[in-house]
Amino acid sequence: MAFIKAFLFPEASPASISMGGAFLGFSLALLILLVFYFFGMMAAGDVKFAAALGAWLGWEFLLLAWALSSGFAVAHGFVERNHLKYVFSPEINWDDGTQKNKRRFIPYVTYLSMATVIVLMLNK
After folding, report:
1. pLDDT tens digit string along 44-53?
2. What pTM was computed for the model?
3. b/e map 25-60, b = 16+ CB within 10 Å
4. Which residue ranges make up each domain of the chain?
């Protein structure tokens, strides 16, 4: 859908990208994040969302969103790894069911969408 929009209405995109820019953003996201998926470090939904986002934003804004979302994910991982969540709110039961094979995972799509909103807001 993002390819059709980029072809028919290039001015409607938040980044005013061309069809080639949409394809490059899609390909970049898909190829890079598939490596993380095959090693079990990322879910398939994260990869698909990033690929669709790359087709919609183009590679320039996608790289900015990746950088910002990676910073959010590192901050979350730091808080989780060092058990700092108990410092901020010790009375909350933190068993939220996000364990897979006795390892906790971080849903990357959340941070990618937050970073995309921030990047688009700063673009306007």
Report:
1. 899 999 999 9
2. 0.75
3. bbebbbeebeeebeeeebbeebbebbbbbbbbbbbe
4. 2-123
